[in-house]
Amino acid sequence: MDIQRITLEPGKRGGRPCIRGLRITVYDVLEMLAEGMSEAEILEDFPELEAADIRACLAYAANREHNLYTLAV
């Protein structure tokens, strides 16, 4: 997955990881998915997003979880 789509900018959204410099955070997308929104619904509501952005958010979250687990072991 192309997690290079995820950007970190100190002055944007409190420095949270965003998608391609947009003001949409990884958390925003993950929360929408957790609430049961489909990929198609998210893309319809946010036309500036691409399907690859949603996959990048999932990959970013998985990588972060893996790193947390690795640090704990």
Give the gist of this structure.
With 73 residues, the chain is mostly helical. Helix content is 52%, strand content 5%.
Itemize the secondary structure elements and their pairings.
Layout lengths: L5 E2 L10 E2 L6 H9 L4 H7 L5 H22 L1
Antiparallel strand pairs: 1-2
Report mean pLDDT, rounded to a whole number.
Answer: 91
Range of helix content: 40-55%
Q: How many DSSP E strands? A: 2
In CATH terms, the superfamily is: Winged helix-like DNA-binding domain superfamily/Winged helix DNA-binding domain
Main attributes of the structure:
mainly alpha; Arc Repressor Mutant, subunit A; two-stranded antiparallel ribbon; 3 helices
Structure in words:
This protein has 73 residues and is mainly alpha-helical. Helix content is 52%, strand content 5%. The chain has three helices and two strands, in the order E-E-H-H-H. It has helices at residues 26-34, 39-45, 51-72; strands spanning 6-7, 18-19. Strands 1-2 form a two-stranded antiparallel ribbon. Helix 1 (26-34) packs across helix 3. The chain is globular and about 40 Å long. It starts with 5 loop residues before the first strand and ends with a helix. The mean pLDDT is 91.
